[in-house]
Amino acid sequence: MTALTLSTSGAATLRADALVVGVAKGAGSKSGGLVVAPGAEAVDKAFDGKLATVLETLGASGAEGEVTKLPAPSGLKVPVVIAVGLGPVPEKDEAYDAETLRRAAGSAARALKGSKKAGFALPTESVEDASAVAEGALLGAYAFTAYQGGENKLAPKGAKPDARKLPLGEVALLGTKPRDKAFKAAAERAVAVVEEINRARDLINTPPNDLYPESFAAVATAAGKEHGIKVQVLDEKALVKGGYGGLLGVGQGSTHGPRLVKLAYTHPKAEKTLALVGKGITYDSGGISLKPAGHNETMKCDMSGAAAVFAAVVSASRLGLQVNVTGWLALAENMPSGNATRPGDVLHMYSGKTVEVLNTDAEGRLVLADALTRASEEKPDAIVDVATLTGAMVLALGNRTFGVMSNDDAFRTSIHEIAEEVGEASWPMPLPADLRKGMDSPTADIANMGERMGGGLVAGLFLKEFVGEGIAWAHLDIAGPAFHEGAPYGYTPKGGTGSAVRTLVKLAERTAAGDLG
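The chain above was modelled as a monomer; its predicted structure follows.
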């Protein structure tokens, strides 16, 4: 994990491998449009006030996320200056928004792979700005190298990983107030939350031959011991005894049996309890309803919801939030075999309802249904489930936005607003009652499939059937943003992203503060 420090050095005196500054597009400036952002004054001075002119000569435009490297002048103690674009200059009396700073810091950190230390002289006058830059830099510095070079257990003895691929070693934030309690707290929060997001990313990126229900449960158990979280693991015998037909039905085709993991963080002064439920399909082949060629290669990411819930519970513990947070990880591997659930089979769920399985690739809702019922028994104040649930949601909202459904409009609105605040794109989605009829079954209480059109909403309606009466519930379908297959951008890497963790942590903080009623 990249280290974070609030530096007492100025930009002109900091000794590091590089110095990061911000530049923006601004009409009417002396440089012809490029404007040096606050925080870079000392760097601009070292360039005799011509930093913007030099950057424009090199082709820089100030576009958001654009990175330009140039040799540092003699007045600085670093060899390289990295200018990162912030987009248009804000309107008068307005500041750069947090997400712009977060993405800029992430872009710069990605460009600094292999470096030991870099100073970030981006706008950090306010605590909020400093927090955004810290988060972005730490998220952008992430690299998954566990199976490369010397970190690979199968590599030749003495082999070393390529240093150029290692993440930036240290982020030094300049322009902050290192002795100010608020700045210190913001830095500590950024480190705690980002470390858990990056742990979630590691889990998502881990190949399924190493991450399966039992090994995921072992990771959760170890983390619980480290952070004072009570962990309970229900193995196959316990699931059979408890009647968890959804988890068992999905997992019975695999040699790796299913697990239901409960993580309970409690605070002695807590007045509210949040239950978080995560879909944890460690590999999804589709089961007997096998996925077509080209759709299997990334299905290790189908446990991203469980990874997000795991990270959020541990974050709540590390931050000492005055709220009880219980996480439920519904873990299974969906495989085809002679023992696998068949289309047409009927499962007896933990709730007592029966489900006709029309498609074994609609498995996430089955494991979540059992976990939602179990979570409801403890009567929390609210339940939020997180899942890479439907391709239909990707068709509706694209690859960067997750859908939010709920049985409570106010709760749905709150989660949407929280997600936007922390920089996670989301959109409120309805649960049309007319789509429920499509899941009527002549054989069972309900089928696991309904109408094809609006499939993401149908899945939400299915889950709603298993939420306890009177409990506010929301469903986050993160199928789009959970796993990024394209080129990295901002602080978003290729592979697992840790989507929804920041939203869940902020929700827990708001609940602890009594802001959600």
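The mean pLDDT is 95.
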